[in-house]
Structure formats: C-alpha cells, structure tokens
Amino acid sequence: MSLIVNLIFSATSSKTLKRFRNKCCKPSEIQERLLNHIIEKNAGTAFGKKYLFGNIKSFGEYQKMVPISNYDELSPYINAELNGKAAQLTLEKPVFFAMTSGTTGSSKYIPVTNESLTAKSKLVRIWLSAFYKEHPGIFSGRILTVVSPEVESLAPSGVPCGAESGHGYRNIPRTLKSLYSCPYEIYELKSYDAKYYCLLRIAASQRISLIFSCNPSTILLLAKSLGQHTEDIIRDIHDGTVSDKFDIPNSLRSSIGVLLQANSNRATFLEEAATNGAGQLLPKYVWPEMVGITCWKGGTVGMYLDKFDQYFNKDLPIREIGYLASEHRGSIPISDKGSAGVLAIPTNVYEFYPADENHQPQGSELLTVDQLEEGKKYYIYVTTLAGLYRYDMNDIIEVLGFYENTPLISFVQKGKGVVSFTGEKLYESQVLSSVNQAFISRQGKYEFIAAVGEMHDDKPRYVFLTEFDDTLPNSEAHEMLRDLEITLQRHNQEYASKRASHRIETPILRIIRNGEFDLYRRRMVEKGRLDGQFKILRLTTDTSFAKEFEVERDVVLKTTSES
Predict the structure, then answer these.
(1) Residue 203 in contact with residue 237, Cβ under 8 Å?
(2) 384 — pLDDT class (breaks 50, 70, 90)
(3) Model pLDDT, residue 562
(4) CB neighbour burial string for 429-466, b if at least 16 within 10 angstroms, e if fewer
C-alpha cells in the first residue's frame, strides 16, 4: 500500500500545490467567493432567515448585518441540531459533532457536515503534498499516531459526538489508512496504560517512518513509555504476545493477533537498540529509518520540542501540523521552518482584530485578509462551511510573512491567556518566553506547568509551577527565579512598574514532585479530555489548578538584603 500512496502523491502533489498557490495570489477574491457560497446555500436556515442572508450581496454587508458570535450565542441553534431539528445553521445536516477538549468548563459541540469534512480533507491533501514534496520518504513505512475515541456519546438525534481526530482516523481513504501503525480499536481502550502499551508494542515491531500527533507532549509521552516498557516490549515481540500486566479485553487481543506474530529477529534488533539507549528503548534506535515528525511547534506547546533531542535524532525534520482546532483548520504549513502556515483561505472565511486594541470590536471594525500587516498580532474570527458565523475563536495569531498575497500565520496563544490584577496585562506568551530564557541552563530537562496568579496577603503574586527532571539545588533555584523575574520585567513594562511600586508581590518558584504532570494528564484523559489535543492554560488565576500537584518545595525570591 505504501507504494500506491507514493505513486499517488508523486503524480499529484505538484498539481495540488500549483492550484493552491494560484488561489493564494488572490485571497480576497477567494474569500468573497466562499462567503457568497455559504450565504446563498444557507439563506433558508433559521440563522440565515434571522440575519437576512438573502439580502446580503457583499462582504461589507455581511459584516454590517451579521453580528460577531461565540459558542453561547450559537448554542440554541446547535442544541436544536443535536435534537434533530433541521436547517438551523446549515441546510446540510450535521453528520458529527466534535466535542472540544477546551481548557476549562464543559465540552462544546461543534457541528461537522459532509461539505466541511470534504473541505478539510482538501487542506490535508495540500499539507501532505507539501510535506511529501520535501520529504518523499514519509510514506516509506508506517505512521504512528495517537487519536481520541470517535464516539463519546450520541446526540438525542442519534448523531455521534466525540473527537474529530478519531472521526478523521476512521474515515480517511483506505489507501492512507493502511499506512497507520495500529487499528482504531486500540484507541477505544479505557485504560491509559493499556492503550499506550498496545500502541508501542505493535509499533516497535514495525518500520515507522512518521510520528504524527497534534501535541508534542503526546509524542514525548510515547517516547518515555517506550523506554519504561523496554523489557516487556522485547519479550512480547519475541513471543508474539501482549503482556497480561495490562487491562486488554480478550476480544481485542484476538482481533489484533495478526499484528502480534512472534519475531525473534526483531527482538534481537531491539535488544541491540536498548543497549545503544543505555538499557532503554529510544525512538531513534528503535526506528532509525524515521523520516519526520509532525506536531504543533508554536504557541504554548513549543517548549516541548527542547526535549526531543533526548529521544530523536537532532536532524530529524519536524513539520508544523498547522493552526488547528475543533472549529476549523486554520493554516497549511508548507515548510519545516518555524511554526507558520498559509491561512486556509479556500475552506474558511476569516476576519481579524488587532490584539493590542483594548475595546470589544464592533462587527464592522473587523479586518479582512487583505488588511493584515506582517509582524502584527490579531484576534481571529471564522465563518465555516459547517455553520459557525463570525465566530470568535478567542485565539491570537501573528502574521509572519506572506505566501504570494496570502498571510503566513502562527498561533500565539489563547486570548484568555491574559492576567491583569493591577493593570499589568501579563500575557501567556510573555510568561513562556521568560521561562524559556530564565531556565536555559536546564533546557529540555524541566516541565513548566503554569504560572498561577493568586492573591497573597491582599496583594497579587505569580506562582510558577515547574517540574524538574533532576534535583534542583536551592542555589540554582534562586538564581533561576531571579533570572525569571528580571526577564519577565523586561518583557512587560507594566509588570515591572507594578513590582517596583510593590503592587505585585515577589514571585514564587513552586517545584512540583517529579512525575506529577504526567499523572495529572492521565487523570484528565481518563475523565474524558481528548488525549491528542490535550492542553492547559500556561497562565491562569484558577488557584484550584495548583492543588492538582504534589509540591516538593517553594522557592521564594530573595531580596537584595537577604542575598
């Protein structure tokens, strides 16, 4: 099957990219045409009738007549769709509802239609074509990925609700599906440990050319688990078994039996790989033929990339997967460099608002694709084929350049990743940048969890929850915390001013017991959070979040007189 896939992409990738490039030469025209299609097609819906879609003849009229929306404002229509009521947001019935993992609060149900699925598939085809053109070996072996279960529940109408990653996995073309390492049924395992062990037990017996997951933390978790289960994996591959240490139903053991054949030669190879890894199986020795990794590289998860060198070859290409959410696929990266991708103009209609503006925008104030400037950050609003209209993503993106006339964008942070007790307006991105600089001596050997803003003795302060791979001496901890404070003040002048005037107390470095973040992640996934898209706010005022972790010790910033 890999030969067929290679032949397909070899024959079509150049044409696919050429068509996309032509569209990127005229983004405004493409966006206007798409908007007209969405409005005309859905004029007869409950939403379309309320906002007089039939009278809208231009982008400007759309901005004047249709308000900016969020999930709460669209939820009456979505709830009606969940209950089977037709023609609410789209004339086409939803075939699936993607449940967002979110960062706090209950799940949201994002409608998915056949048309929106087809459009997303075309974007994936463009992305894969660009990846294949630069690295034609990506389909030379199997693809190891992690997805969440497709069906978490059924809507009252009977339409499935769950993870779009699982839905996509089950509905990809058969030729591509044949390249994936593991059958879908493994992803439905309830036991966190059993699922990861099964994935790795099967993958370790195969030739893996590509690891694919949205979140780099998931890839690191796979790599760590591979090493932790070295002896069991080698023994199982030698014997053609799956360890009985894990809660795996007999029916699944039987159904995957064809993938579990005894292979003494592979077991011998893995023993040598473990020797090279100082007694542990590491991906770079288990799959030396690996061609690339795909995952998020920017925003709040980019710090995980620092740890990849422990498990993967340093020159292994890492391709950004793109600005991706349950609501839409927002960008198409066409290079290994950085985290930027081309704005997905063929599939969604986009509007923007400068991130440095303080007031809530009016509908007519939003900018269109032709009004963006390189180097500036914007809030992003999306109109989709599945019935989201001028939807506030509460995301901040940055324009890093242009591909032809279409912006190259990168996700920066969630808009709500901002804390301001006394006007300091501290952004999540500023915290992450400061942590990366201050903790450079421990690069790749720490897990920054979050900065928690809290009130302490009637004054606010920031507590930096961090887990270190090795014991951190107090002297080094104090030095790192001092560097963090200096760097944070450099990044945010208002924070510096509030610290100088004692309106914000000195920060705390809270060292978390080793392994706590993985345990937290496991608890959340077992409670229903989507594994492949697991994410948290790296800056929050939710003090209950800090109580999720066992604390080793607090490090308090020493004053000049104390030092």
Answers:
(1) no
(2) very high
(3) 38
(4) bbbbbbbeebbeebeeebbbbbbbbbeeeeebbbbbbb
pLDDT at 200: 97
- Look up residue 38 and give its two tokens: 């969405």
Domain co-membership, 528 together with 441: yes
Are residues 450 and 387 part of one domain?
no
Residue 235 or residue 427, greater confidence = 235
Q: Which amino acid is at 406?
A: T
Percent of the chain's residues with pLDDT above 90: 71
Residue 559 has pLDDT above 60, yes or no: no
8 A C-beta contact, residue 341 and residue 323 = yes
Q: What is the pLDDT of residues 196-218, one digit of tens each?
A: 999 999 999 999 999 999 888 88
Q: If pLDDT is split at 50, 70 and 90, which confidence band does 560 have?
A: very low
Run of H or E including 143:
strand 142-145
**What's phi and psi for 292, nearest 5 deg?**
-175, 170
* Half-sphere CA count of 276, side-chain side, radius 13 A: 17
Smallest CA-to-CA distance from 402 within 25, 17, 9, 22 is with: 25
Between CA 178 and CA 142 the distance in angstroms is: 8
Q: Coil, strand, or helix at residue 335?
A: coil
Mark whether 273 and 191 lie in a shared domain.
Answer: yes
Contact 256, 249 (CB under 8 A): no
**Which helix (H) or strand (E) element contains residue 131?**
helix 114-134
Residues 6+ apart with CB under 8 A from 37: none
Q: Comparing C-alpha atoms, which of 320, 327, 363 is closest to residue 341? A: 320
Length of the chain: 563
pLDDT average, residue stretch 108-121: 95
Mean pLDDT of 358-382: 92
Distance of alpha carbon 1 from alpha carbon 4, whole angstroms? 5
Element (H, E) at 208: strand 208-212
Instruction: Output the domain CATH number for residue 20.
Output: 3.40.50.12780
Residue 425 belongs to what domain range? 418-556
Residue 36 domain flag: yes
Taking 60 as the threshold, does the pLDDT of residue 231 lie above it? yes
Quote the pLDDT of residue 563: 35
pTM: 0.82
**CA 88 – CA 563 distance, rounded (Å):** 65
Tokens coding 220: 């690191």
Please tell me whether residue 452 adopts helix, strand or coil conformation.
Answer: strand
- Residue ending a domain, among 398, 414, 430, is 414
With tokens 């999540």, the residue in question is: 428
Same domain, 290 and 193: yes
Residues 297, 299, 302, 304, CA torsion sign:
negative
Average pLDDT over residues 421-439: 87
